[in-house]
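The instructor's notes for this session suggest beginning with a concrete chain rather than abstract definitions. Hand out the sequence below and ask the class to guess, before any prediction is shown, which regions might be ordered.
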Amino acid sequence: MNVSLTLIVIMAVLFACGVYAMLERSLTRVLIGFLLLGNAANLLLLIVMGQPGVAPFFGAAASPEEMSDPLPQALTLTAIVITFAVSAFLLAMIYRSWQLGQADTFEDDLDDIAVRDRGAEAEDVMEDDAVTVDDSATTDFVGVDTAPITVLHARDIPSIRDDAPTDRPSSDSPTTGSTGGDER
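After discussion, reveal the predicted structure:
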């Protein structure tokens, strides 16, 4: 299989530019990066397909060696549909963010900035101020007396009687008829 080095270089450049563009804060650049990644993936699938050949539905006209592989073609069509759907979603997000804020970039909020500015010294101070837990207090509930939940079984409480309906007549009710059930 001879693959053109030009196609491989173009695919690598598309992947690199797409990843770089997706790391930006602007949603428009994220969309452009995603489109570049989608096109690079389609090109990768076409490179993997190998030499073009006769279409597979011409089965009797050509030998199997002359036919092209239909799987990469199906995967490419699927990748095109997925890229289109995600691009439409990103376009809707860009439009909505432009409506709300007249910009399509995401800014850090005040809490993120405060966490980023806080240094290692401030975190050490916070760890030193932590309240130490008393070792005598336990939450393991080892004994029965300290357990918050007691599991009872039917045999533990003799006054509970199972009165669920059954097919068999109970021993304390009179049976009527040959079927053993109520005749109303």
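Then share the key points. The helical segments are 5-22, 27-49, 70-101, 110-117, 120-128. The chain has five helices and no strands.
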